[in-house]
């Protein structure tokens, strides 16, 4: 299975050998966990997530490599109908899924379709749903999708984040809003230590969910927050959701207690910082 040239230094050459396919919620949610290098240097892991709707339709969030095993998993779950690129960065394999499942609706954020058209690796994929600051509160995907998902477009995040809550399983699915390093599961089949390397150890030491998460708070506030007021409004809407589990793209799944973790990470946006 080919890997896009633009991602050759970021993802494994043969993803099938190192991917961990795990049923997080039997018959409903499956994660596709793989090694991933940030800037080609730091081991932060990557994760796609498959969700089976009650209707039998399947949605994929942050698509991971479409290996034969992933195809078989999708077929066992139902019909792939939604392909979600949840921010400006998590779209590497969207083209593979669009080619294999051309009937599926592609969902993304403002500017991403244009960005993808600028590369021969990614151009040619139509987006049926594109979130913007103006339409985000009125956006509707479909009746079956909206019956099960709440979603928030955090347009004031530097990567333009789309965050989803699968209400039936009380599960939040997100890309770069929250990290839970080290990426233990994602590197478990790679033969490499999830914390090997100086830069990896340093980044994992600050982008985890232990203690008061002061460095994640600082990262979200100073590095990623482009409009603190708008970010705060998004944070308050997300914290109204009823959820317990968080499936991040980077690091291990937070199986329980996720709402408390999210509240810690977003504290400066939920309360006056000073």
Automatic annotation (TrEMBL):
SUPFAM superfamilies: Metallo-hydrolase/oxidoreductase (SSF56281). Pfam families: DUF4336. InterPro entries: DUF4336, RibonucZ/Hydroxyglut_hydro. This is Metallo-beta-lactamase domain-containing protein. It comes from Exophiala sideris. The lineage of its organism: Eukaryota, Fungi, Dikarya, Ascomycota, Pezizomycotina.
């Amino acid at each position: 299975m080919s890997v896009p040239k633009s991602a050759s230094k970021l993802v494994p050459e043969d993803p099938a050998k190192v991917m961990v396919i795990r049923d997080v919620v039997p018959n409903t949610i499956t994660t596709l966990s793989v090694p991933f290098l940030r800037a080609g240097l730091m081991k932060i892991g990557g994760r796609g997530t498959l969700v089976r709707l009650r209707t039998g339709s399947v949605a994929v969030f942050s698509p991971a490599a479409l290996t034969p095993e992933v195809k078989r998993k999708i077929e066992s779950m139902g019909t792939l109908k939604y392909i979600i690129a949840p921010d400006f960065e998590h779209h590497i394999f969207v083209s593979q899924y669009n080619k294999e499942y051309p009937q599926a609706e592609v969902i993304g954020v403002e500017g991403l379709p244009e960005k993808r058209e600028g590369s021969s690796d990614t151009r040619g994929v139509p987006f049926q749903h594109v979130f913007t600051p103006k339409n985000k509160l009125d956006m509707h995907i479909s009746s079956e999708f909206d019956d099960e998902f709440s979603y928030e477009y955090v347009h004031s995040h530097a990567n333009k984040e789309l965050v989803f809550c699968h209400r039936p399983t009380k599960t939040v699915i997100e890309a770069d809003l929250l990290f839970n390093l080290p990426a233990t599961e994602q590197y478990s089949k790679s033969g490499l230590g999830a914390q090997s390397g100086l830069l990896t150890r340093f980044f994992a030491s600050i982008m985890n969910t232990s203690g008061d998460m002061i460095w994640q708070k600082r990262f979200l506030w100073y590095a990623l927050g482009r409009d603190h007021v708008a970010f705060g409004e998004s944070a308050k809407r997300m914290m109204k959701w009823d959820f317990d589990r968080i499936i991040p793209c980077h690091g291990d799944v937070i199986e329980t207690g996720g709402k408390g973790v999210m509240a810690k990470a977003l504290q400066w946006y939920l309360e006056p910082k000073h």
